[in-house]
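User: Write out your own:

AI:
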Amino acid sequence: MVMVDTADGGQKLLPAVMDLSPEGRDALFAELGEAPWRAQQLADALWNPAVRDWDSVSSFPQALRHELALRHAFCAVEQAQVRVDDGGHTISVVGRLGDGKTIETVVMHYGKAQHPRTTVCVSSQVGCAVGCPFCATGRLGLLRHCTPGEVLDQVRLADMLAQEHGMHPVTHVVFMGMGEPLANLETTVSAVKRLVQERGMSARHITVSTSGVVPGIERLIEERIPVTLALSLHAATDDLRTTLVPLNAKYPIDLVCTKVEEYAAATGRRATYEWCLIEGINDTAEQASALARRAQQHHAHVNVIPMNRIEGSSWNGPDAEGVARFVARLTKANVTVRKTRGQATDGACGQLRATHEARRHQLPDGKLSRPVRTASSRE
């Protein structure tokens, strides 16, 4: 939803048009007395990065554009702050939602001209309830779930920004931003299905990350949608994982890894174990050996991610030598080391939003102010 001014000087929340399913769009045009094919015209416009607002939907007459603008917001995510990093290959966005709350979306370009790849990391919640102590988002707590339209509009916004910055259109979507996607299960399932059905993405180009919400994994098994399931493992023993991922107390490692393996068997998609590498915490020889055994047992790929520095935390990622030493201990496991993006500008996931919110204050009506413009925030 998006807040708009009304004729009487008040404000109201307009529902985002992307929160309408295809059936909902059909019903909308039927209610307006328009031809059924208008719904397909709208679908085409929504996924065209050159179309930024109702006025630019040139296939509609002006009167129809005006009527639709009174009923629905064209995009649910407004750019509150944008940072470009990594030589123009990473764009970190703080997105303001209709109720004033903010999320973070990161667009990353990889590859060469012959094989371009643009990945968008989307948020599924405002904040997160899991409370992992190494995560900037975890410090916020959970404020609310995102709607399917708010997730899909992050992908649309990424396409627009990619076009502006000379990147290839989005090829991959990862649910690894703010929030636990499987705690907002209906939104995640709906968004994945619509990315496949409406935008024409391959489900194999979509990754859903989870800290181990077993009922959500079981639902994905039922759905048989062949996304890549990424388990935020971070520790290979229950005692340490409960410290790093508090949800482990409810869904312990053996149970979660078994469910992830069941999902892989049901979809034919190899699972991934995400491992945020923290110096002196989970980078030991013992943890490496236990991780290697689990990865081999469950036929999982390991993705090692050196921790991003968080202000006020005594933890940090190891240096390059420490990362290499840990990876070398993962014998017989299939391993990659993720190159962290956006650190130079506090743009790694969750960090830009945190610094953005630090420059805002609460208004008398309880909403957050717009960010205070500082030299570091101007582009």
